[in-house]
Amino acid sequence: MKIVTTIDEVRAQVKEWRAQGLSVGLVPTMGYLHEGHASLIDASHSGNDRTVVSDFVNPMQFGPSEDLESYPRDIEHDAALAEAHGCDLIFHPEPSEMYNKGFSSFVDMTVLTQELCGLSRPVHFRGVCTVVSKLFNIVKPDRAYFGKKDAQQLAVIKHMVDDLNIDIEIVGCPIIRESDGLAKSSRNTYLNADERKAALVLSQAIRLGSDMVKNGEKNCSAVIEAMKKHINDEPLARIDYVKIVDFATMQQITMLDRPALCAIAVFIGKTRLIDNFFTEDVIG
Ligand code: PAF
User: Fold this and answer.
1) Which regions of the chain are under pLDDT 70?
2) CB 71 within 8 A of CB 185
3) Pocket of ligand 1, candidates 26, 30, 32, 39: which has the most ligand atoms within 8 Å of its Cβ, to mutate?
4) Which of its termini does the chain have fewer beta carbons within 10 Å around, N or C?
């Protein structure tokens, strides 16, 4: 496995693979890889001849008061994990390689980004769409892999690819959890011991809500209120949102009469964590 830092090096390598008729999968990441990322690399490794992992903390998707500076970074750890899961090339650029001085073109999206994380993090999806478009243009993969934990991001990327006629298959992969239920996230490392315990309210609320849906509850408010009550009982937790949206439009719905996403964002201390369930996964 190689680690490269320039766009030219990625293009040269991918060109060589293409000349041999090999297919290429891309796993875009911001590094500090964990088992969630490993599952994406595994999926790419089994679905493609070669796998590229991008490892880049993208400044454009962080708001001014967010955690860009403190976001955890460890390229040696990332390289070992990625290689063990079958990665062939890590692209680990500096911000200046991705955004030159005169950088002034952006990819943005309306509608799907007006709710959930888009509402709480107004610049986030413009940064995600822009960097992912750039990575798609640099690597030109056959397939790209994204986790369902960032369900809105997955919907946004799928929509962007459709809107802009980008010829890449977008593959969504299941949420990977710790043994006690907490969804894996690079941001879990911010939690101290008390916060780590408190963070379990997210997966517990998800379980509570999905059990209600499984047992036939159709009224979104009933599900949301029960989940909110559970989270609010934890003193270290502060709800950003608990919402149920139509998965196709990301608009809030009142009745569970179509495929829906129940998504939550909760601050545990200063750390903002997300989790979700798809009603289709619960009721089939
Ligand atoms: O999901 C992430 O880690 C990031 O949003 C992504 C897709 C790598 C873009 O920076």
Assistant:
1) none
2) no
3) 30
4) C
- The predicted pLDDT at position 283 comes to 84
Amino acid 27: pLDDT? 99
Give residue 225 CA to ligand 1 midpoint distance, Å: 30
CA–CA distance, 282 with 214 (Å, rounded to integer): 6
Cα-Cα-Cα-Cα torsion 243, 174, 88, 46, nearest 10 degrees, comes to -150
- Ligand 1 nearest atom to the CA of residue 58, by list position: 10
Q: Which two tokens stand for residue 265?
A: 């964002």
- Tell if the pTM clears 0.70, that is, is over it: yes
Say how many Å lie between the CA of residue 128 and the centre of ligand 1: 6
Q: Catalytic annotation on 159?
A: no
Could you give the residue range(s) of every CATH 3.40.50.620 domain in the chain?
2-173
> If one looks up domain 186-275 in CATH, what number appears?
3.30.1300.10
